[in-house]
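Let us work through a complete example step by step.
Step 1: write down the sequence.
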Amino acid sequence: MEIVVASSVAVLTAGGVYLILRLRTFPVILGLALLSYAVNIFLFASGRLATGLPPVLSRYGDATYTDPLPQALVLTAIVISFGMTAVLVIVALGAFLESGTDRIDIAPREDDAEPRESHR
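Step 2: predict the structure and record it as tokens.
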């Protein structure tokens, strides 16, 4: 089970890094989402990979239990990553509407290429 979780975290991280290095805004947003999914799986797996165990303690006082703290951290991380993705989509949409393209390495316009005078 651990090898499957570790492999999925590695694949999501590699895909996220690959997409972040692209020159378009939409793949960058998808790459950040993949990285946040990888972090969520990593945090969830840090609480112990066990199925069928009670969330805190069993009725008879057995020492086997699932740690609820990573589950709370994952829930918080999901909410934060959703908000971050929404903000990035709005910023990317604003940049697309301003420049007319979604490329990240946009060459400066002719009127922006001139040095600006400093106003004192």
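Step 3: interpret the result. The mean pLDDT is 81.
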